[in-house]
Structures are given as C-alpha cells and as structure tokens.
Write a structure and sequence with these properties.
The protein contains eight helices and 25 strands. The chain is mainly β and 397 residues long.
C-alpha cells in the first residue's frame, strides 16, 4: 500500500511516495520559520530565575511557548539606578512623583534618572522642600543611557505614558513597572497607594514578568523626482481569486527612497486622515498580495495592541503569549474582509493603491504621523515582528 507524504520545500510541494512498513520513510524536518526567537535582555543586572528559564511547552512546530506569568525576575547585583517617567503637567501625578522619588533617594539610596523636560517643571523646581532630591536627579537622554545605566523603569500614568516609555528605547528596554495614574490601565496593573511595598519586592527580585513583543516598522517614501513607470503590472494573488495592482520597479538612475524605522508596542494605523474620501490600501504578506482595503483604513496590531483600537474596530483580543500579527480593517466598504491573524514571522507591507482618490496617513502608537502618497509614487509601510521585547512587571510575590 502507498500513501502520500507532503513536504514543503520553499514555495513548491514535493510529493514523496513510499511503501508503508510501519515507519515513515524519512524524518520530516520541523519548520523553524514559525518560531519567534527573542533575545532576552533585562537591563544590566536583571535575569531570570534558574527554575523558570525552561518553564514552557513545545508545540507541534518545535517552538517553545512560555506560559503567562512564568518569568520571574531576579538581580545579579543590587539595582541602584532607576528611570522614572511621569505623565506631563498633571498636578496629582506630580505629587505622587515627589513622594516616589523622595523614597527612592532617601530610603533606597538609588540614583533617579528623569527626563530633562520633567526637571524643568515649576512645581518641582520651585518646591524648596524637594530641592535636595531635585538636585540629586540625573537628566535622562534617550538613546545614550540605554541598558548600561538603567536597571528598571517606573511609569506614573496610564497606558499612553507606558507607550511613550517604550518609544524611548530603540533596543530592548529594561524591566518596567507601571502605576495606574491615568485614564486607561490595561498595561499598568499596580496601585500607587502601595508603591513602597511593591517596589521593595521588585528591588528584592520577587516579581513575575510578561514579555511583550514589539513591531518593527519601516516607512519607505519616494522622493519627488523619483517616478515609477506608469504601466501597472497585474499580479494574481495566491490567497484570493482577484488581481491587485503592483507597481513596476522605479527608475534605477533616480535617487533611492528614504527609509524611516520605528518600533511600536500597540499598533500602526493607516487611515484616510482629514480626507472625506475613502482610502484604497493594498496589503501584502511575504511579498504576496492578499487583499485591497477600501474604507477608512487598516490597523496592524501586536497582541498587546489587540486590546486597544483593534478591538474597538471589531477584531478579537489576542493573548500576549501568542506570536501573531493582527490585520484589522477600519470600516471597510466590503462584506468579505474581516480581521485576520498572521504568524509573527510574516512580513507585512501596506501601500496606497494607485486607484485611491486621496493619500493616506500612518500613525505609530498614536505618534510620528506621516503622509503616504498614492499614484506613481511608491510610498509604503513595511512591518515585521522583532525580538526587541518590552519586559513588563506583572505582579510581585
């Protein structure tokens, strides 16, 4: 008797036939393209407890999936430097900031790093009782200190403050603990009333972690003198029975396009902006055209961002441990396009269709809003999941 053994090799399918003798004629190699392999970094002194390094299970693809809350933080040395980020110009948060930094400076003998814009606030600089602590603070410059100086981060505010803290670190960020002092608190589970007890346990290394993947975004914009061939190449999608426009290659003699790279924790929103017209966006996955969106826009979200705008637009919530990307249309003028999940190893590209009546705008975690042109200029945004994780302190033990 015979059976078919299908084995994927590149983009082709190789069919192997063999006689059935109770054993497989070959050992099928487990694919590794589905495996997200993050580089775990927990600041200059943070590490995982030995008992929890291998606390997980292996799925059918050979990927080790960590259980939520199974990571426990400890320190190789006593933490001595902390970055405190607070909500800007909020009197109540400023009072909490004073209490927190005074306790860190006087009771824990820690060096407190603060942004220069916060140090210039009048409520801090004009407070004579706070002068000693204020003078001992170290101004924090994004991109210079990075991991070599900061042991962990404290956020005072809501989810927006935490997203801002994530944007300050272009590489992996130190462990971050968030105190809920804002309007939304999905990512800030700690109450400020118990900050001394919570931080004492964090400094002692008694806390569990959750690892949040971030999305690497690359904005590719053509210069004004860089024009593409007017001819539109029709490429048939491998996923749908419809043809989507794909631009021809630009003139090789023209200047190369400019590229801007950003990291986001929640999502990237590409929408019609202030235009009253619907926008047309072409979406590609691993260089294959999958669909075209006609509507208000599209959301590319991480599992962390699945509880934000993506859920409000009708998508599902995705657990942070699931390695996936969520593509959610915003008010699509269609009955067939619904939110879809793709593996975290996928490379997504979104471009404004030449048939679009107007340009589009892209926002990255609600910041760095950029314009994307349509027509004969091939502006696009490319996405891929990266191993530059954000380590959130989930609870204290």
């Amino acid at each position: 008797r015979f059976y078919l053994a299908l084995r994927r090799g590149g983009s082709a399918l190789t069919v192997a036939m063999a006689s059935e003798n109770g054993k497989r004629p070959y050992t099928e190699k487990k694919p590794t393209s589905y495996k997200l392999q993050p580089t775990y970094r927990y600041g200059p002194k943070g590490c995982l407890l030995e008992a929890t390094k291998n606390h997980g299970y292996e799925n059918d693809h050979g990927s080790t999936l960590m259980m939520a809350g199974s990571h426990h933080l400890t320190w190789t040395q006593q933490p001595t430097q902390v970055l405190v980020i607070k909500k800007f110009r909020d009197s109540y948060v400023t009072d909490c900031f004073k209490s927190l930094t005074t306790w860190l400076h006087e009771k824990q003998n820690m060096k407190v790093h603060v942004e220069a814009s916060i140090l210039d606030e009048e409520e801090l600089s004009d407070d004579h009782g706070f002068r000693e602590v204020h003078e001992a603070m170290v101004p924090f410059t994004p991109g210079q200190a990075e991991l070599k100086d900061i042991d962990f981060i404290i956020c005072l505010g809501g989810d927006g403050t935490l997203l801002y803290a994530s944007s300050l670190f272009e590489s992996s960020a130190p462990p971050l603990i968030g105190f809920h002092l804002g309007s939304l608190g999905f990512l800030t589970p700690f109450s400020f009333e118990n900050f001394q007890s919570a931080l004492s346990r964090v400094i002692a290394g008694n806390c569990s972690l959750t690892l949040r993947t971030r999305l690497h975004c690359q904005v590719v914009k053509c210069k004004k003198d860089q024009r593409l061939d007017k001819k539109i190449v029709r490429q048939r999608s491998q996923s749908f029975n419809e043809s989507l426009p794909v631009f021809a290659s630009p003139n090789p003699q023209s200047a190369p396009p400019t590229k801007t790279e950003l990291l986001v924790l929640n999502e990237v929103v590409i929408d019609r902006g202030p235009s009253p017209y619907l926008t047309n966006l072409d979406i590609y996955c691993d260089d294959h055209a999958i669909t075209s969106v006609q509507g208000d826009g599209v959301i590319i979200a991480t599992p962390t961002g699945s509880t934000a705008y993506s859920t409000a637009a009708g998508s599902s919530m995705v657990h942070p441990s699931v390695p996936a990307l969520i593509i959610t249309p915003i008010c699509p003028h269609s009955l067939s396009f619904r939110p879809i999940l793709v593996p975290s190893s996928s490379r997504i590209r979104v471009a404004v269709s030449p048939e679009s009546r107007h340009l589009a705008w892209a926002a990255f975690d609600g910041r760095n809003r950029q314009q994307l042109s349509q027509g004969d200029r091939q502006d696009c945004v490319q996405f891929s999941m990266v191993s530059l994780l954000l380590t959130l302190i989930l609870s204290v033990c």
